Amino acid sequence: MRIAVGLSGGVDSSVAAYILKKQGHDVIALFMQNWHDTTGTLHGDCPWKDDLDIARLVARKLDIPFHSVDLSEIYRKRVVDYMFSEYEKGRTPNPDVLCNREIKFDVFLKESIKLGADFVATGHYCRKSEKIVDGKTVYSLLAGTDKNKDQSYFLCQLSQQQLAKALFPVGHLTKPEVRRIASEQNLPTAERRDSQGICFVGKVDLPVFLQQQLSVKHGNTVEILPDYYEKYHQNINDKTVEQLAEPYIYRPNSGKKIGTHNGAHFFTIGQRKGINIGGRIEPLFVIGIDVETNTLYVGEGFNHQGLFRKALFIYKNEIHYMHNDLLMQTDEERNYLVRIRYRQPLQKAKLVQKKEGLYIIFDEFQRGITSGQFAAWYDGDELVGSGVIS
């Protein structure tokens, strides 16, 4: 069968292409150019022209056809514009999750089909399985064998239609094994470092990047002291799931003004850099963002109570399951393993489905629960579902 490999110029997709060709498939390489603008991009971080050159060299080495496609306009509309919009609302989006759902396994897939491809393959560290349910094939997404590199979280929003056409040739390998294969085959990417930062944009100075569309707006920085949380933690065992999931509520008079900032929408929960207030025993961290009053709330110390919450909520229309037989019914409760960011160790939690949405109550308090990010829940190695944290 013909398989289009999303050749990115990195070692993982290069080895994915090698494995598929070795298996006897008709492999073609397709390079995605998704970003041109260098505003806010830190110098020397994976410029796309270098990626294109390296990807072309890999295709030549493997003796497979090479194609490239410019998806920058649709990437801006579906991913970057959404990212700007979320930051403007005081939320923190995950552009990598969106990129996989909206670009790699949607637009890119369609471009691959135009080239006659039956499947699309990427270098993601995850696995796919299938089973028959009621006479229909159902696809499951599984964590990668290498737990240090598992990237299933980034694919937590894929649909059954997308999974049906997706292949993950390196999902059963560890990163050292991928490097070894690349070295043995003398692939140009064997020693190339992994890319970092926003998918296809690279590592950026986020405030500079966001200032392309979000204006500087001076506001007050307010410090919240630890005793502020006593009312939230009183009788915590008697609280309802709705009460547990309520975020901390801050007002400008909840603490003391200790400085100013250039826009609350440039910050995210748990952020340490950029607050620019010194003279403390421990560093200050962002614990709250109010874009209506343009107030930034901060707390001192790695263990400040404002950084930790027991539960979160996901609106009903923001819940996504990998396949329908996993859906929860109203008032149903299940125990799953959950992560709220990439590479976070899985956390034990109880999921409670209500009419208005899904509540996730963790066994332990979680640091940095952030509105706009994705929570993903697992049953063992299987990624069951995900949703946008409210």
Characteristics:
Elongation Factor Tu (Ef-tu), domain 3; 390 residues; five-stranded parallel beta sheet; 3 domains; alpha/beta; Rossmann fold
Q: What would you note in describing this structure?
A:
Helices cover 24% and strands 29% of the residues. Helix 1 packs parallel to helix 2, helix 1 (11-22) packs across helix 6 and helix 3 (72-88) packs antiparallel against helix 4 (95-114). The chain has helices spanning 11-22, 48-62, 72-88, 95-114, 160-164, 175-184, 206-210, 230-233, 241-245; strands at 2-6, 26-33, 66-70, 119-121, 126-133, 136-143, 166-167, 219-223, 256-261, 284-290, 295-300, 308-315, 319-321, 333-339, 347-354, 357-367, 374-379, 382-388. The protein is built from nine helices and 18 strands. The protein is α/β, with parallel strands linked by helices and 390 residues long. It is globular, with a radius of gyration of 22 Å. The chain has three domains: 2-199, Rossmann fold; 219-307, no CATH class; 309-388, Translation factors (Elongation Factor Tu (Ef-tu), domain 3, Beta Barrel).
Strands, total number: 18
**Overall CATH architecture of the largest domain:** 3-Layer(aba) Sandwich
| Terminus-to-terminus distance | 43 Å
Low-confidence stretches: none
> Radius of gyration, Cα only, in angstroms?
22 Å
The residue fraction in helices comes out at 10-25%
Report the biggest beta sheet as strand number plus sense, adding barrel if it closes: 9 strands, antiparallel
* Helix-and-strand structural type: alpha/beta
Beta-strand share of residues = 25-35%
- SSE run: EHEHEHHEEEHEHHEHHEEEEEEEEEE
Q: Work out the helix count.
A: 9
Which class of the largest domain in CATH terms?
Alpha Beta
Total domain units = 3
Mean pLDDT across residues: 92
The CATH homologous superfamily of the largest domain is named HUPs
Shape by Cα distribution? globular
- Oligomer state of the chains in this structure: single chain
Q: According to CATH, what is the topology of the largest domain?
A: Rossmann fold
